[in-house]
Structures are given as structure tokens and as C-alpha cells.
């Protein structure tokens, strides 16, 4: 950890890695063990350090959920889960990298069993601070949004803006609030399968404009 990089550097490197692997513009999901990492830790750390967090961390698969579906409602920690699944624990428990590797091995095992994964949790945050809001509107690449006081450690322009996917796994649709009120005219992304007749097929929702 002492020789590690800062969080913003790590997020940038990770983003680049996703891009180089051809994953970034596909329908992919972050997989964690428990909701702590995405719901609490990364979110609060990024807010505290005013780091712009990529939107793909706003929804995730908590592997505990599929694990319980496959192995019964058993409550256990990651190490116990890995061993219960018949795998050997590799490395040191609670070491970030080793936890991640073992989570990935458990994920692979469940995938081999044919388990169909879907998003289990998401942050439905609406940032009141436009500096912290990812602008995901397509076409904004050439015209970055205007940030009056851009702090030095903000990396908004360094991430590519994606059109987000909804939880159905299709490109979300962009909507505008027509109802009179304080949010009138605000732009949002919603379920890509939304139709006037059926409504939304999933609960995906994210403000484009703060
Ligand atoms: Zn949807």
C-alpha cells in the first residue's frame, strides 16, 4: 500500500484497463462481496476527495446474493464461502487484491454452474454538486460541460463519457421532466425498455443534469 498509487490514479488506470480490454463499452458489471465497497467505501472516499467516480461503480452484483441462491441461505464471510464452494482460499484474507482474486474465482465457479447474474444493488444518488456528477450525455465528448471552478484533482475530462445501460442490459433512454416544478426541464436516463404502454421494465434511473 505504501508504494501504491492514489485513488484517482487507480480509478484512471482501471478505466484505461477496461478500455484496453474492450470491456468499457460493453454491458459489464462490477462484482463485489457485500455492498460495502460500492455503497459506502468508494462512494464516500470519492466524495471526500472530490474524485469523479466512473458511473459503472453505481450498480454492482453483490456475489452474496447469487451465492445464497446456489448454496442455500447460508450466512458466511468470503473466505468461508470460497471454501464452502470447494475452492482453496488463496492469499491473505482482507488483503484487497487477494479478496478480489478469490471473489473472481467464486464468480467463475458460479458462472460455470450456469448461474444467470443480474445487478443486485445500485446507488440512486443524485449529486447536488455538479462538480461530482458524471455527465453521461452522448455527444458531450467534444463539448465538455462547463465547470466554473475546477479543482486540480478532478478528472472529469479524462474519463470517456458513456451512454449508460439500464439494469435490463440495454442502452438507457434519455428523458426530460415535463411536470411543472423545481425539476422541470431536468434530463435523466431511465430504463431502455420503457414504453408508454408498459412503463419501465427496471428501476434504473440517473439524473443527467443535477
Ligand atoms: Zn431497463
UniProtKB/TrEMBL annotation:
<feature type="domain" description="GRF-type">
    <location>
        <begin position="166"/>
        <end position="210"/>
    </location>
</feature>
<keyword id="KW-0863">Zinc-finger</keyword>
<dbReference type="GO" id="GO:0000175">
    <property type="term" value="F:3'-5'-RNA exonuclease activity"/>
</dbReference>
<dbReference type="GO" id="GO:0003676">
    <property type="term" value="F:nucleic acid binding"/>
</dbReference>
<dbReference type="InterPro" id="IPR013520">
    <property type="entry name" value="Ribonucl_H"/>
</dbReference>
<dbReference type="GO" id="GO:0008270">
    <property type="term" value="F:zinc ion binding"/>
</dbReference>
<keyword id="KW-0269">Exonuclease</keyword>
<dbReference type="Pfam" id="PF00929">
    <property type="entry name" value="RNase_T"/>
</dbReference>
<keyword id="KW-0479">Metal-binding</keyword>
<dbReference type="InterPro" id="IPR036397">
    <property type="entry name" value="RNaseH_sf"/>
</dbReference>
<dbReference type="InterPro" id="IPR010666">
    <property type="entry name" value="Znf_GRF"/>
</dbReference>
<dbReference type="InterPro" id="IPR012337">
    <property type="entry name" value="RNaseH-like_sf"/>
</dbReference>
<keyword id="KW-0862">Zinc</keyword>
<dbReference type="InterPro" id="IPR051274">
    <property type="entry name" value="3-5_Exoribonuclease"/>
</dbReference>
<keyword id="KW-0540">Nuclease</keyword>
<dbReference type="InterPro" id="IPR047201">
    <property type="entry name" value="ERI-1_3'hExo-like"/>
</dbReference>
<protein>
    <submittedName>
        <fullName>Exonuclease, RNase T/DNA polymerase III</fullName>
    </submittedName>
</protein>
<keyword id="KW-0378">Hydrolase</keyword>
Amino acid at each position: 500500500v505504501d508504494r501504491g498509487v492514489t485513488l484517482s490514479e487507480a480509478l484512471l488506470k482501471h478505466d484505461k484497463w477496461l478500455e484496453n480490454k474492450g470491456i468499457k463499452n460493453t454491458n459489464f458489471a462490477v462484482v463485489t462481496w457485500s455492498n460495502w465497497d460500492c455503497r459506502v467505501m468508494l462512494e464516500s472516499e470519492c466524495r471526500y476527495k472530490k474524485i469523479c467516480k466512473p458511473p459503472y461503480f453505481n450498480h454492482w452484483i453483490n456475489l452474496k446474493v447469487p451465492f445464497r441462491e446456489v448454496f442455500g441461505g447460508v450466512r458466511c464471510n468470503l473466505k468461508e464461502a470460497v471454501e464452502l464452494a470447494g475452492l482453496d482460499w488463496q492469499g491473505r484474507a482482507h488483503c484487497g487484491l487477494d479478496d478480489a482474486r478469490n471473489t473472481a474465482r467464486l464468480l467463475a465457479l458460479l458462472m460455470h454452474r450456469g448461474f444467470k447474474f443480474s445487478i443486485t444493488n445500485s446507488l440512486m444518488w443524485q449529486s447536488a454538486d455538479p462538480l461530482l456528477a458524471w455527465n453521461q450525455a452522448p455527444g458531450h465528448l467534444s463539448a465538455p460541460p462547463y465547470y466554473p471552478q475546477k479543482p486540480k484533482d478532478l478528472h472529469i475530462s479524462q474519463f470517456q463519457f458513456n451512454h449508460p445501460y439500464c439494469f435490463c442490459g440495454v442502452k438507457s433512454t434519455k428523458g426530460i421532466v415535463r411536470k411543472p416544478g423545481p425539476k422541470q426541464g431536468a434530463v435523466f436516463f431511465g430504463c431502455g425498455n420503457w414504453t408508454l404502454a408498459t412503463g419501465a421494465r427496471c428501476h434504473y434511473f440517473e439524473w443527467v443534469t443535477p
